[in-house]
């Protein structure tokens, strides 16, 4: 009998633990949860398995400190690494997290040569760069999660502003997952109606600013770490799009090689996700201002990746 496809989650902390829970609740995958801390992935996996009879799923969830159980994974969600604290930027996590992601990717690809790597660890775009470099995988199989989350924040803010259901709001946030991200109000709609017809320019500008600072807002409130409910939901949404071959266009961090006029840089762009991973970058028509903002964001990502390259030499 064919088993269920295996999804590995590396890092059993806030994002990884919650992502594993969401995946278990799908009742479609086998889930392997990996962490370096002894007992934590095992304990969380056992806890999730025990929730199954109540929640109505029979997912096999394995927690481990090693990689043997990850063999043959279809997708690996990489959340291992440190999170920022109030007053820090994501970029300050670079040196520590690059080393962690480098070692994790080596372990994963040794046992799952066909795996699709879905990066979550920050600074996100630079971690996709590390994973690409270490794995030497085709760019379609190394993808970063950020745009779904940033767009979800914008959607939630607009839904609150207009008192409409969040799922009715469509938004698209491109660019790097940092201060230079590029929310696109022109591609933001409520049941097909342009948001600029519904919200004043001042209020919309405030929503764009709050979206850009959405991660820091939560870090400031939590104090001990960063957001994880929306991030884990966003990562699992991407896993579903890939595993169910949905061909859905989702903002994702991928290597651009000419798309949007951007050469050799990892950046958030609309991507068709399917069983092949990042199957196609979809080019939206951008105004000169939007294009300039995307280029500025690409410049910031390039600088960060150059720092990683120096660290990894
Ligand atoms: N891309 C995004 O939009 C986004 C959103 C939220 C969080 N993040 C990032 O995700 C990362 C994780 O966040 P979190 O809130 O889950 O942090 P967390 O501290 O709760 O969990 C991180 C886990 O990684 C584990 N870990 C560390 N080194 C490891 C290794 N070598 N192998 C396996 N596991 C290891 C830790 O033991 C810990 O359990 C952070 O870098 C954070 O900034 C990114
Ligand atoms: O803000 C952070 O550090 C975590 C994550 O990137 C987020 O946007 O929530």
From TrEMBL:
UniProt GO BP: lactate metabolic process; tricarboxylic acid cycle
EC code(s) of this entry: 1.1.1.37
Keyword annotations of the record: NAD, Oxidoreductase, Tricarboxylic acid cycle
Name of the protein described by the UniProt record: Malate dehydrogenase
Residues noted as binding substrate in the record, renumbered to the chain: 84, 90, 122, 153
CDD domains per record: LDH-like_MDH (cd01339)
Listed PANTHER family: L-2-HYDROXYCARBOXYLATE DEHYDROGENASE (NAD(P)(+)) (PTHR43128), L-LACTATE DEHYDROGENASE (PTHR43128:SF16)
Function: Catalyzes the reversible oxidation of malate to oxaloacetate.
UniProt family annotation: Belongs to the LDH/MDH superfamily. MDH type 3 family.
InterPro entries cross-referenced by the UniProt entry: L-lactate/malate_DH (IPR001557), Lactate/malate_DH_C (IPR022383), Lactate/malate_DH_N (IPR001236), Lactate_DH/Glyco_Ohase_4_C (IPR015955), Malate_DH_type3 (IPR011275), NAD(P)-bd_dom_sf (IPR036291)
Active site, renumbered: 177 (proton acceptor)
